[in-house]
């Protein structure tokens, strides 16, 4: 079961990146799909699954950082809300995970807030 979940998460990640690089699917939509998938499956996640989910989240956040200047305020807000959802899912898991330091998450939120204020 553990391998099946990890395989499903890996496959989902590959599809998300393939779709996001080949079509006009937005970063916010890709992030929303990712978090919805994590939410649907996280009750069965192992520490390995969470590590893979965190790696995917990091890749999506890097893509967001590169493209946020071209995104609408609504898209930026959607990414921020989905990041918060992901972190809440991770925080509520009974599995011990290697969470990002709180300071790093605060930097991401601060960057989004600056963008919304127009401090690019």
Protein architecture, described:
The protein has 120 residues and is mostly helical. It has one domain (2-117). Helices cover 77% and strands 0% of the residues. The protein is built from 5 helices and no strands. It has helices at 2-22, 27-41, 47-67, 73-91, 102-117. Helix 1 (2-22) packs antiparallel against helix 2 (27-41), helix 1 packs parallel to helix 3 and helix 2 (27-41) runs parallel beside helix 4 (73-91).
SSE inventory with pairings:
Blueprint lengths: L1 H21 L4 H15 L5 H21 L5 H19 L10 H16 L3
Helix pairs in contact: 1-2, 1-3, 2-3, 2-4, 4-5
Key attributes of the depicted protein:
120 residues; mainly alpha; 5 helices; 0% strand; elongated
Summarize the structure.
The protein is mainly alpha-helical and 120 residues long. It has helices spanning 2-22, 27-41, 47-67, 73-91, 102-117. The chain has one domain.
